[in-house]
C-alpha cells in the first residue's frame, strides 16, 4: 500500500509537469497574433475604406475654393452685387401710388438757375447733351442756337435748331410720377432741386418725350433697347437720391430690364452742369432770323400776317414786344407750328415766356 501511494504521487507530479508545459506552449503560440494585430493598427498604409473616406475630407486649399464657390453661388441666386443698379433698386420702398391731388408742374421751378452759373437749366442741358454747338453771342455763353443731338431714346441723330421744336428736355423720373411716389412731401427747395437736377434731365426728341408723358418703367421704355439698362439705372438713382418709392409693377418692370444687363452699375447720383461757354466743339455767332419773320413783326398796323389774323389762334390785342397779335397760350402756338416763339416773332407774348429769356413755349 505505501508503494502504491508513492507511485500515485509520482504520477500526479508528472501530470502536473506535463500540464504546465502544455500551457506555456499555448501561451507562446498566441503571442505573435497579439503583436501582429497591434502592428497592423499602427501601420501608416491606409485600408481601402480608410482611403475612400479620406478623399471626402477637403484639403485646406480645397476648403478655400469651396467657400469661394459657395459665396459665388449665393451671389447669383440671392441678393444683387454691391454697387449695381439692382442692389440700389432693392433698397427702394415698394408701395402703392399716392393721389395726384395738389400736383402742379410749376411747383418744381423747372429751368431755374439752381447752380447759379448764370444760365437757365434748359440751356445747361443742351450744352451738356448736344455736340457741335453754336452759342448765341452776347448771352455769356449760355443760349444754344444749334447743335446735334444723339438721341439716346431713339438711337438716332437730330439737328437741333432753336427756331424749331424737335428737341425737348425730359425729366427721366417725370415730375408727376415723383409727386405720386413721395415728392408731395417735399419742401419748396427740394421740389426746385428735383426739377432742375442734372441727374434727372436728358435732351431727347420731342416726339418721344411727349409719347412718354409721365409714364414709369412699367408703362414706357425707350424704343432704343440698348439704352434701357442705363435709363432704368438712372431712374433708380433719382428715386434713391430723393427717397422716392416704386410701385410694384414699376419695380417688376425694372427687374426685367436689369435681368438682361449683366450687373448694370448703379448710376452716379452726383453730376454737374457744364460751365457757361463749355460744350462740344463750341462756336459763337449772332442769332439771325428769316427775313419773312422780321418783316411780319415790323409793328405796322396794316402789315399783320393774314394767316395770323385769320387762323383764330392769336388774340387781337397787342403784345408788349410790338407784334400786332399774340398766341393766347402755348397750345395754340404749338398747334400753329410756331413753338417755340421768340420775342419779335408774330404771336409772341410775354405771358408765353415764363422765364423771361425771350423764348416762349419751349
TrEMBL record:
Coiled-coil features, chain-numbered ranges: none
Listed Acidic residues bias regions: 62-72
InterPro entries noted in UniProt: Excalibur_Ca-bd_domain, GmrSD_C
Bias (Low complexity): 32-47, 295-325
Biased composition (Basic and acidic residues): 351-362
Keywords annotated in UniProt: Signal
All residue ranges annotated as the Excalibur calcium-binding domain in the record: 326-362
Domain of life: Bacteria
Signal peptide: 1-24
Region (Disordered): 30-84, 267-362
UniProt protein name: Calcium-binding protein
Organism: Brevibacterium sediminis
Lineage start: Bacteria, Bacillati, Actinomycetota, Actinomycetes, Micrococcales
Amino acid at each position: 500500500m505505501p508503494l502504491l501511494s508513492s507511485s500515485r504521487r509520482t504520477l500526479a507530479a508528472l501530470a502536473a509537469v506535463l500540464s504546465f508545459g502544455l500551457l506555456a506552449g499555448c501561451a507562446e503560440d498566441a503571442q505573435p497574433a497579439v503583436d501582429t494585430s497591434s502592428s497592423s493598427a499602427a501601420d501608416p498604409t491606409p485600408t481601402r475604406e480608410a482611403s475612400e473616406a479620406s478623399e471626402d475630407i477637403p484639403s485646406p486649399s480645397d476648403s478655400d475654393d469651396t467657400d469661394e464657390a459657395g459665396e459665388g453661388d449665393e451671389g447669383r441666386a440671392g441678393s444683387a452685387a454691391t454697387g449695381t443698379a439692382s442692389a440700389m433698386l432693392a433698397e427702394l420702398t415698394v408701395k402703392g401710388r399716392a393721389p395726384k391731388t395738389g400736383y402742379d408742374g410749376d411747383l418744381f421751378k423747372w429751368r431755374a438757375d439752381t447752380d447759379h452759373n448764370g444760365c437757365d437749366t434748359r440751356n445747361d442741358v443742351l450744352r451738356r447733351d448736344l455736340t457741335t454747338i453754336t452759342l448765341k453771342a452776347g448771352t455769356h455763353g449760355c443760349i444754344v442756337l444749334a447743335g446735334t443731338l444723339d438721341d439716346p431714346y431713339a438711337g438716332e441723330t437730330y439737328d437741333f435748331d432753336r427756331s424749331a421744336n424737335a428737341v425737348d428736355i425730359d425729366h427721366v423720373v417725370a415730375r408727376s410720377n415723383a409727386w405720386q411716389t413721395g415728392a408731395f412731401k417735399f419742401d419748396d427747395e427740394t421740389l426746385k432741386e428735383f426739377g432742375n437736377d442734372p441727374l434727372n434731365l436728358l435732351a431727347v426728341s420731342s416726339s418721344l418725350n411727349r409719347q412718354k408723358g409721365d409714364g414709369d418703367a412699367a408703362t414706357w421704355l425707350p424704343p432704343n433697347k440698348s439704352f434701357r439698362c442705363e435709363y432704368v439705372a438712372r431712374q433708380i438713382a433719382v428715386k434713391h437720391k430723393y427717397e422716392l418709392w416704386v410701385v410694384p409693377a414699376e419695380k417688376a418692370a425694372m427687374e426685367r430690364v436689369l435681368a438682361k444687363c449683366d450687373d448694370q452699375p448703379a448710376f452716379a447720383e452726383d453730376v454737374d452742369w457744364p460751365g457757361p461757354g463749355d460744350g462740344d466743339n463750341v462756336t459763337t455767332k449772332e442769332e439771325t432770323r428769316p427775313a419773312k419773320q422780321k418783316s411780319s413783326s415790323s409793328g405796322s398796323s396794316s402789315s399783320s400776317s393774314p394767316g395770323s389774323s385769320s387762323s383764330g389762334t392769336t388774340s387781337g390785342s397787342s403784345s408788349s414786344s410790338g407784334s400786332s397779335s399774340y398766341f393766347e397760350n402755348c397750345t395754340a402756338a404749338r398747334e400753329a407750328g410756331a413753338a417755340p416763339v421768340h420775342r419779335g416773332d408774330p404771336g409772341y407774348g410775354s405771358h408765353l415766356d415764363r422765364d423771361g429769356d425771350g423764348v416762349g413755349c419751349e
